[in-house]
Each structure stands twice: as C-alpha cells, then as structure tokens.
Amino acid sequence: MRFGRVACAALCWMAVAGAGCGPPPPPEGPRPVTGACEVDELDRDRSGSLRQDQISVRMAAGQLMIEVTPLAGWVLEAAAPDTRGRLLRIAEAHGGELARGSAAQEPALFLVSFTSRQPGAEFQPDDLHLVSRGLRERPAAIRAITPGWGSRRLEQRATAQAVYAYAGSVDLTRELTVAYQGVEDSSWPSKLAVIEAERARIARQSH
Length: 207
Description:
The protein is an alpha+beta fold.
C-alpha cells in the first residue's frame, strides 16, 4: 500500500510537470459564445464601437415599436463603452433575480422595450416569443424596469422596458426569430455578422 501511494504521488507530479512544459496556448481570439448572459465572464478590458440599435432586433407590430437587445456578455463586448456600461448595469442589476425566478438553467437575458406609436397603445408582455433552433420559447421570467409596466398601456411615444429571461436553449449564434402576436422578425443573422466582425477587430487590436 505504501508503494502504491508513492507511485501515485510520483505519477501526479509527473503529470503536473509535463503540463507545465507543454506548448503555450494559442493567441486568444473571440471567445466561444452562447446565449447565456455570462456577465461574470465578460472581459471588461475589451470594448467595441457598436450602438444599441446595431446589436438589437427592432420591429413594428401594430401600434407598437419593439426593441429586443441581447444581454449576453460576448454581445456587450462589441458595444461602445457608454452603451456597454449601461446595458451591463441592467444585466447585473436584474440577472440574478431573474435566474432565481425562472426554472431555466443559465437563462438568456434580453432588454425589451415597447414604444407606443399612438396614444393608449396596449402591449402584452407574455406574447413576445423567440424562435430558436426550431423551438418557440416563451418568457421564463420578466422583471420590469420602468414604472407602470403592469398597466400594459402606453401614452404616445412612451416606452416601457423590462428584462426578459428565456430558456438557456436560445442560441444567439444561429438564426433567431422574434415573434409578437403574428408579426415576426428574422433579421438577427445580419446583426450577428456585424457583432462578430467587431469582436474580431477587437481581438486583433488586443494582440
């Protein structure tokens, strides 16, 4: 038994030593992405130049204008410093509560804005769905930001905002459709191309 323990310790030491002598890791490029927020993994030394509308899906639905902004860390890396800081504060302020309030594992977070085009416009928060990988996802949890959210009614040009949590199966690296009461928008791939190009530019500048 004593020999076995000594041999085991020796093998462990050799493994650690061998790992230290291995080839250096490749230069860091854009990090792997998922749909989850990953705020804790966000590289705060990186910052892009994109505006919020460049990383958001915007669509008209009846009397409403709807804007859906992903709060995933890798998306925020591509945003301009002021935009990134504002969205990051929103994600950090509401992400923990949404994660606890939803049954989803590592939920994907989005900032959602409803803006009225006519006075008295009504909105239905639960009707905002995401179609990802062929699956229609309903909000797992919603946390209001602006007052009066519960009234579900807006004055002209007024905006109601909330942070939405969807199932972690929502994949921002593929086609994604935003759907609201029969209206759909599938423009996300074009946004994704702009975001990935900006992340690649940031990665080149960091080396």
